[in-house]
Fold each of these.
Amino acid sequence: MNPSHILIWNVRGLNSVARRNVVRSLVVSTKIDIVCLQETKMVAISREIILSMLGSDFDNNYICLPSVGASGGILIAWRSRLGAIQASRMDNHSASVQFCSASGSPWWLTCVYGPQDNQEKL
């Protein structure tokens, strides 16, 4: 099955329940199939957080790249109706998921977040 709605958002921290509630409201109201959140600022995202923020359709259908301190962090989550992913990949500043379309053609979704200090910006 192909996704009909994808949300890519720089949330600037999911430690706040209020921010997670805003994400939940947006996911519910727009029927988003895939959620990509950058700058989660969370070292770990538990199943309980996924369930409260996105709902049961996203249960066990997510990958996350942890933040480094209070910088970075990526979450990619997808509705269970999209099926199992073909592959996933985590790098220093990106997370990728390979889906298979309804026609059987695989495609990749990559979410990138690159925190940089002043030296790296040069």
Amino acid sequence: MAQAQSSDFTRAFGDAKKQARVVAGEAADTAQGLYDSAADLAGSANQAARKTAGSFERALRNAVETQPYTAVAIALGLGWLLGRMHRPM
């Protein structure tokens, strides 16, 4: 009787170990897939940010070259506002 219980316990423990390995493997595969997806998304976001920054730079450069006095007036106004924000009233 004790031999049969020991054998059942050993078999059940072995089955549990196999199932745990399968679940751990599936979890590792899922985690790797998520990591790959996140890396692709980060690359796409980086590329989009570079394009946006480049187009903003071109637009700003064009505005400064075509309307220099307006650009200087806006820069002075923004500088004054930022300076007032950091100074107590």
Amino acid sequence: MGKIVRYTSEVVKKRKSQSDWDRAARMTDEEIEAADRDDPEMDGINEDWMDNATTERTRKRAIYAKFDEDVIEYFQSFGRGYQARMNAVLRAYMEAHRNDNA
């Protein structure tokens, strides 16, 4: 595993985006589809992927937890549902490491 680098929300906000959003906005549907075909990360993903997606409402339990202010601010910056997003990140971590101690 590589070195973990942490940034404060202030540093993240000051970083210049490396995305060419103007170019992306000018792309036609055909150009986007061609880029998807050439992208190895898109292998196996097609227009119907959502048809196979399932949502599952799991039982929740309230706890008292403290998080760093910048972590909370980051998740809140995306608007409503920040606690669900935090839960999704924790779930992804748990699932990725579930068998580490087996």
Amino acid sequence: MSKVSPKHKIALLRVLLAEDLVDGFLCLSEDSHSSEYVSTCDERRSYLTGFTGSAGVALVTRYDAMVFTDSRYYLQAGNQLSQDWTMMKMEPKDPTVEEVRLDE
């Protein structure tokens, strides 16, 4: 695993977002073939967040760092994510990744 802290990874990503005038970065679990189970070299979301579950999406904005996952992974995500990440439960009553405001 990486020796770079989650907080530092988020901070570095935000620098890149600001340099390129991008509001957010979406990091999916799938590889370029949309496989659910990916090889180690394609585990971008896992590297960025520390969450190793096979289903989930990470979103980093200027102000937030969130991981969206479903009920199969709530316990695992809760244990693996550092305090720098907010776990977003994929429940009907909760906001989806598409509904997140990037300017707040």
